[in-house]
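This is your field. Have a critical look at the following sequence-structure pair:

***
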Amino acid sequence: MKLTDFKVLSFDCYGTLIDWETGIWQALQPLRETAREPVARETALETFGAIEAAEEHEAPGLLYRDLLTRVHAKLAERWRTTSSAAMDRAFGASVGDWPAFPDTPPALAELKKHYKLVILSNVDRRSFAASNQRLGVAFDAICTAEDIGTYKPDPRNFAYLIARVRDLGHDRSEILHTAQSLYHDHAPAERIGLARCWINRRADKGTGSGATKPVAERPKLHFEFPTLGAMAEAVRRLR
C-alpha cells in the first residue's frame, strides 16, 4: 500500500489540522483560575476528553458549540468551582479561535495538488466555517456532525463520508482517512474498512491521550507521520 494509491484524503479537523489542545487550554483559563486546586494542562485536557466523549454519546443531535457549553459547566463541577452561563457559552463559541498547526496550511496546499480533500468532523457548520479561514484551502466536501446527526465514533458518520465521496465520483477504496484521534477516527475507520493514516501530533508528549478519550486497543494503522507537513513531504517525493 502506497500513499499514491488513493484519490481522496478525508480529514478529521480538530487535533489533526487545528491545534485544539492549545485552543481548549487557552479557552479554559478563566475557569481554571477559579479552581480550588491547581489544574495541570494534561489533567485538564484528559478530563475534557472524557466529558466530551460522554456528552457526544448522550446528546448526538446537539450542535458542537452547545455541547461544549455543557462540557464547560461539567468541568466547573469537576473542579469544584463556579461557572456562569456566559462563561459556558464563551467556551462553546471559542472553536473558531483555536489555532491551526503551523504546518497545516502549506501541507494542505501541497496535498490539494494530488487529492480531493474532504472534512469529516465532530463540529457544527458555523464553527467549522470560522476554522476553515485558518486552513487556507477549499475542501471538495465538508461533512459535519450537524449534517449527519451523530458524532464520531458512530459508524453512521463514516457511512455518510463514503456516500459523500461516492457523489464526488470515488469509491471507498480510494479514500485514505487521515486523523490524529485513535478513538474518534481510526478505530471506527478500521471497523468500516477504510485505509488509515495517523497524524500522531502527540508523539512527543508521552503516553497520555490528551483531549481525546483513550482506546482500549490500538487499531491497525497503514501510515503514520508526526505532522501533516511530514505526510505532505512524503507525497511530494513520491509524486
